[in-house]
Amino acid sequence: MHVVYPAIVSALLFSIGVYGVLARRNTILVLMSVELMLNAVNLNLVVFDVWLRDRLHGGQVLTLFVIVIAAAEVGLGLAIVLALYRNRQTVDLDRLRALAEPPSGPGTGAPANPGTTPETGAETPVPVPGASRSGEESSGAAPRSGAGPDSGATRAGAERGSGLGGADNGGRDRAGGGSGRSRRGGVPPDEPERTVRVEEAP
Fold first, then answer.
1. Where is there biased composition of kind Gly residues (predicted)?
2. What per-residue confidence (pLDDT) applies to 105?
């Protein structure tokens, strides 16, 4: 048999293995594709060892060594696949992204640095947790502690108005008491109730 036929078969096996690795549909399919690639290499080693008539048969010895290593690799790979299936209930490589790095860069929409904007790259102020609370306390305490020049006059005017209003309320109460007594006695009041307007001092 000519050496071309085994070489063509090994090339086909290697191509199928490369396609299976690049497709990445399933973890088990990826392992099978890797094994196909190794078997294509083993076929080439045996064929060229026979064709070259090596006295030491180095190609066949290396083929046996690769087969042993591939068997150990498949056993470890299947153990990893079973562990993934027990934890995630899937063996799809597209869904197993727990250890993947988050996308970063100008094209992903997320800035590389937390203090820069993605469009211009200008630095933006980073909020401090205690700054907003201290700002609120200072803004709330400012009206209480600050006293303007007109605060004394305003307070005096309010006290005058309250004093006059108290006197007015006392007069109304007395008038109301008399009117109540007159109503209880059946006699209408002689004078109507008078309202007194008190203008507050400026």
1. 160-169
2. 58
